[in-house]
Amino acid sequence: MRRRGLAFAVVAVAVWLFPELAAASESAADLGTILPAWSALPFVGILLSIAIFPLVAPHFWHHHYPKVALAWGLLLAVPFVLVYHAPALHSLAHMAIVDYVPFIILIGTLFTIGGGIFVRGSLRGSPLVNAVLIVIGTAIASCVGTTGAAMLLIRPLLRANRQRRHRAHIVVFFIFLVANIGGALTPLGDPPLFLGFLHGVPFAWTLGLWKEMLFVAGLTLAVFVGFDTYYWRRESPEARAPVGSARELLRIEGWHNFLLLGGVLAAVVLSGVWHPGEVSILGVHQGIQNILRDVILVGLAAASWVTTPRAVREENEYTWGPIKEVAILFAGIFATMIPALLMLGAGEHGALAFLVRAVQSPRQFFWATGSLSSFLDNAPTYLTFLQTALGRIYPGVMEREAIARLIAENASYLVAVSTGAVFMGANTYIGNAPNFMVKSIAEEAGVRMPSFFGYMVRYSLPILIPIFAVTTLVFF
Is 364 a member of any domain? Predict the structure, then answer.
């Protein structure tokens, strides 16, 4: 009865606020100019919680991380709404309706479909086999998205290396390459590029990023082969034996899920090229094509769940744990990042104006976009710095015309923003959606993954940052 009464109360409040929310969108855009810099502290707090609690209090974190995420979300939302009223409510509703819900539906669908594909056969987790699996994932990430490629190949990779003692580095480099760098070549690969496509960047333009992608991927893969060869030589003979029967050929079970993955791609592309109009949900404008896309995705996930034999998912060691953890933690992250995104969106009129003013050259756009994309949602970060470049180089020019001129006359700026947003999502576990999910799946499989800070200190800072520095010298 209490839950039912609470549900009625929420609906009643939503209905009562609806007229006010509908008129709040314009004033919500102005929040970025008046929010103080310290309003981003809850976002810093949840990041530190994700980084520190698993280290100092792992038992507490395992059982109470939903409460921690909720606490930080409420610490932002309650005073935010009390002080800024309808504009704040509109910002929260916009984040939920336009960003968070579609985000969860997409990665949940890919997680469900990917979990229905089982690669059976003898795989030995040697440096060569691991490199081949990672190369395949990197190659297909731009076609099926970084999340789709990661969910498709992480379990076969983990099974191939099940007998090895040293496995964490394999998962980390998988995150680097498959979950991030490989998604740079099409708008389907990573959300910021899809957002650019919606704003007028031609679909095929991102194919021109192949030089940067191959350069970064090649250097990263070379480092991985060195790492994995070193650790492979330290493994016992038993650990080097193939997993599974020595005579068992490779084959795929649940293959029909590849057709469902094709349906996901079709739904995503459709939402980018077909625009039948908009509807208003709690004062937030949402495209009909986006709603239809999400309905199709939910249907595809349900179809995968119903049509895939339970035995396939059991052999895949499929559980809902990773997607549950991502959904809960990213709900807190999405809520608390609102002030930071609003201040960035305000450009030189917001509390983060010093950062926007400091970005002038393509190499500065590459590092600014990438650094913030490592911790914030890389899609709005991409859009913020794209708009900054357009406003600085082509002031007063309509967006689509300005983008066309940017590509023709100053393409290095768009290359910098695009590659920075995609590549540097690999710098942290929260830089891109599949990172945290891959970590959770690996931990469920018994891999002892590095902590939030450990990931950065042991891997991304000493490996990726020098690679990005060399990339800057070569391309920017």
Answer: yes
How would you classify residue 283: left for phi > 0, otherwise alpha for psi between -120 and 50, otherwise beta? left
Q: What is the tally of structural domains in the chain?
A: 1
Interaxial angle between packed helices 378-393 and 411-423, expressed in degrees from 0 to 180 and rounded to the nearest 10: 160
Q: Percent of the chain beyond pLDDT 90?
A: 36
Q: What is the mean pLDDT of residues 99-117?
A: 86
Q: Is 227 left (phi over 0), alpha (psi -120 to 50) or beta?
A: alpha
Whether the model pTM is above 0.85: no
Amino acid at 356: V
Give 352's contacts (C-beta < 8 A, 6+ positions apart): 37, 340, 343, 344, 346
Give the confidence band of 122 by pLDDT, cuts at 50, 70, 90.
low
Residue 67 sits in which domain range?
Answer: 41-475
The per-residue pLDDT for range 34-49, each reduced to its tens digit, is: 888 888 899 889 888 9
CA dihedral 239, 219, 435, 425 (to 10 degrees): 170
Residue 154 predicted with pLDDT over 50: yes
Residue 287's alpha-carbon distances to 273, 278, 299, 383, in angstroms, are: 12, 4, 19, 18
The pLDDT assigned to 180 comes to 94
> Are the C-beta atoms of 123 and 242 separated by less than 8 Å?
yes
Residue 160 in domain: yes
Measure the CA–CA gap between 182 and 169, rounded to whole angstroms: 18
Q: Is residue 19 part of a domain?
A: no
**CA distances from residue 301 to 248, 306, 311, 357, 452 in whole angstroms, order as listed:** 30, 9, 17, 44, 30
Q: Report the alpha-carbon distance of residue 456 to residue 426 in Å, rounded.
A: 10
Query: Contacts by 389-396 with C-beta closer than 8 Å and gap 24+?
Result: 389/365, 389/413, 389/414, 389/417, 391/347, 392/360
Mean pLDDT, the chain, as a whole number?
84
Query: Do residues 72 and 64 make contact, with C-beta atoms less than 8 angstroms apart?
Result: no
